[in-house]
Amino acid sequence: MPQTITLSIDAMGGDNAPNMVVEGMDLALRDLPNVRFIVFGRSEQLVPLLEKHKRLSARIDLRHCDDVVSSEEKPGVALRSGRKSSMRKAIDAVGTHEADGVVSAGNTGALMAMAKFVLKTLPGIDRPAIASLLPNMKGESVMLDLGANIQCDAENLVQFAVMGEVYARNVLHIDKPSIGILNVGTEVLKGNDSVKQAAAILSETKLPIDFYGFVEGDDIGKGTVDVIVTDGFTGNVALKTVEGTAKLFAGALKQELMKSTLGKIGAFIAKPAIDSFRNRFDPRRYNGAMFLGLGGICIKSHGGTDGLGFCYAIKAAHELVTDQLNEGIKEDYARFSSEHHSMSLTTPED
Amino acid sequence: MPQTITLSIDAMGGDNAPNMVVEGMDLALRDLPNVRFIVFGRSEQLVPLLEKHKRLSARIDLRHCDDVVSSEEKPGVALRSGRKSSMRKAIDAVGTHEADGVVSAGNTGALMAMAKFVLKTLPGIDRPAIASLLPNMKGESVMLDLGANIQCDAENLVQFAVMGEVYARNVLHIDKPSIGILNVGTEVLKGNDSVKQAAAILSETKLPIDFYGFVEGDDIGKGTVDVIVTDGFTGNVALKTVEGTAKLFAGALKQELMKSTLGKIGAFIAKPAIDSFRNRFDPRRYNGAMFLGLGGICIKSHGGTDGLGFCYAIKAAHELVTDQLNEGIKEDYARFSSEHHSMSLTTPED
């Protein structure tokens, strides 16, 4: 029997909270028998919901909070005035080591600000990054940053590369993950200064990493590399572009099939195959963005997801805790950053 | 009978040139009876190919060039040393008004540098932009810039907005096209200074344009706006991300259908519907990126395309010439920029 893993849950974040949060916990419990939850939120809403889930209730420690961080709240304001909110209390539980990780579907900026304040960044990391898994032709890859850092210098990108590498090795269990920096086609212009300098540092480093070089937008779907490094602006746009294109395709395929009788019959016969296709790219399966570089596990669920999506966010947190990601990052980064630092000092500037 | 339109063609650009170029011209001629071509390239390669296409040969004026701009050539080098290349000669034909527009599948950076040098930018336009149509749930939208300008200030973005608006009105025939600036989710951080300032200018302008505000990556597929404005770095990544996701989906759907007998039978029965779906998103149909803001029509075909794709690039050039896009931009921009200029002067800075 594996050790019990305790996750603290912000029950009030997300469009369909707290219903979808309760559903998500219930679903997650089926596959994760060793998990228990500390749940923060309004008990008057949560108690009636939990009464319908007896098995789940037995694994929950409910902590009442009146305050909720709204989705419009600015990060700074939430940080100052949201000390008693369900989001903050859920993060605090990780800070006090009562919980092993936190999951919230609330306001991303507020969650990052609070998590950074409470959990601090790991030694050698200037800025945490938001990372997510993305499906591709070969399986999946991790992309970061997805919106925490709108403008990034070369050093930020190099740190993201190291965090992504450690994640891919420790959690995806890839022996020597390949790393690419997202850039525009080399034939036009070779990108901005940040990506050029970051590529130069990663190319010349003596760190035992597999730096592939630049990748382009279509390499995300191809699965050219295991880790895709980019600034938060480009990463956010690219991630949402993948999501939007996926929706467009799924919608248009259905539309075309339902237009004709033959289409409907064919779709009915091929239903298992089409379902398997849908399932493979179901965005809920990829829900649960990771805040990498913090002194604790923090997972951001998509605000608009449902119970199944939230369940996947819980599973992502569970996996990071199980694989002791932060221990990995801490050890590797300490080693990497000392080597990288000494390397930086000896590398001639160009 | 409509007036004859003359397009100059760089026959040597692209991975499968000149074969696919000749095929593309032949295909285009079927739908565009009023087109004729001035074709620049190596006659020893072109003559045998053209002998197979008698009808096409009658509509072609072949001009021999030995020189070819390679795909690795740097724009500056190509500009200085490529004066006798097929690409440059094809652009020159537009500069001398012998041709109404030029199409090339060659080196994007070299094509842009040469086109800018020969055709100049339109009055009031600092930097030309690369624009392309993209499919969405409602039809299609135009996105720019796609890689000509890696770093853009607010003024560049505002100019792109106006160029995109004029294109959507004159060529897509949308009465009052809506314009959005691509940004990250407002909940995290509200983007960089360029997008914030550009949005402020467009929000306050008295120009008769429909500025929607910020859009996110998933709005590309949704079709939230008719014109998506972005810097060349983000736009290039977003465009290629759409392409990569499209390929991933098409490939995975086929994979899932071919895995089982029922999948194969269903796919066979639904073939017309699936073909119609494929056709709707066939990237070749969207081939032909437009260089907007230049004193002449210049279309860049994807280098890796085939005859059908090159045919669509020719059609894109033909459409811009027919709809007299540049006349529209020139007139509108002269009006817009004088209004915008006087507006800028009276708007208090913040």
Automatic annotation (TrEMBL), chains A, B:
Function of the molecule: Catalyzes the reversible formation of acyl-phosphate (acyl-PO(4)) from acyl-[acyl-carrier-protein] (acyl-ACP). This enzyme utilizes acyl-ACP as fatty acyl donor, but not acyl-CoA.
PANTHER family: FATTY ACID/PHOSPHOLIPID SYNTHESIS PROTEIN PLSX, PHOSPHATE ACYLTRANSFERASE
GO terms of molecular function: phosphate:acyl-[acyl carrier protein] acyltransferase activity
EC number(s) from the headed UniProt entry: 2.3.1.274
Keywords recorded for this protein, A-Z: Acyltransferase, Cytoplasm, Lipid biosynthesis, Lipid metabolism, Phospholipid biosynthesis, Phospholipid metabolism, Transferase
Reaction(s) catalysed (UniProt annotation): a fatty acyl-[ACP] + phosphate = an acyl phosphate + holo-[ACP]
Protein name: Phosphate acyltransferase
GO cellular component: a single term: cytoplasm
Superkingdom to which the source organism belongs: Bacteria
Pfam families from the UniProt entry: FA_synthesis
Biochemical pathway: Lipid metabolism; phospholipid metabolism
Subunit structure: Homodimer. Probably interacts with PlsY.
UniProt-listed NCBIfam families: plsX
A single BP term in Gene Ontology: phospholipid biosynthetic process
Localization: Cytoplasm
Primary site of residence: cytoplasm
Family membership noted in the UniProt record: Belongs to the PlsX family.
SUPFAM superfamilies, sorted: Isocitrate/Isopropylmalate dehydrogenase-like
Organism: Magnetovibrio blakemorei
